[in-house]
Design goal:
Arc Repressor Mutant, subunit A
Length: about 210
């Protein structure tokens, strides 16, 4: 087997595993199903990934890195004004949810049902979030001193942003039955929700 074939097989397995874990959760996912979806034998899957846990760790690592890159790409640009960076950060996180709508419920279910999975997620996310909060708090304090925004606790603000951005993807399956014939077009609904979230946060922090 060539190196290209090995890489292709590994990527097929990872793609199939991501879908399996996101739709069925860690406990419900089966390596036999992943192998079948990837078009490889069960033995070949275990050649690349010895255990389901090892495969799951790779999916978590990939997901967290995607999340980090998108957020840091927006919030990590020191040449932008703080308010503009915050707008881009809110939009970037929302867009991640649009591209990966199963992630919120997956993370919620994983952290509730399995303490060890919570520890894994915390380990992957906490280090860069702590640094991000410290840096953003310094910038927010400086912006407040310049009179650009209200005095703001960044930890509280980030929780508010997360709540606004994540909730639509957790609640969307229930919106149709609740709203009946008023059930909105999904694409239009999400675009309006993102704009609304940005507007709400800006009203919260910008001095009037």
């Amino acid at each position: 087997m060539t190196e290209i074939e090995k890489t292709d097989n590994e990527q097929l397995i990872l793609k199939a595993a991501e879908q399996e874990f996101l739709t069925k959760g860690y406990d419900g996912a089966r390596t036999t199903s992943i192998a079948q979806k990837a078009g490889v034998t069960h033995a070949m899957l275990h050649y690349y990934f010895r255990t389901k846990k090892q495969l799951f760790d790779r999916i978590i690592e990939k997901t967290v890195e995607t999340f980090k890159e998108a957020i840091l790409a927006a919030l990590g640009n020191p040449n932008m004004l703080f308010v503009d960076r915050l707008k881009d950060g809110i939009a970037s996180q929302f867009d991640i949810m649009v591209a990966n709508p199963l992630l919120p419920r997956f993370f919620l279910n994983a952290t509730i049902s399995s303490p060890e999975l919570y520890d894994l997620l915390y380990e992957r996310i906490a280090s860069f979030v702590k640094v991000l909060i410290v840096d953003l708090q310094k910038e927010a304090d400086a912006a407040a001193e310049r009179g650009e925004i209200e005095k703001t606790d960044i930890q509280v603000l980030l929780i508010t942003i997360m709540s606004l951005n994540v909730f639509p993807f957790i609640a969307y399956p229930f919106i149709g039955p609740v709203m009946g014939e008023m059930n909105p077009d999904r694409e239009k609904f999400l675009a309006e929700r993102k704009a609304e979230n940005i507007e709400l946060i800006m009203k919260r922090i910008i001095k009037q």
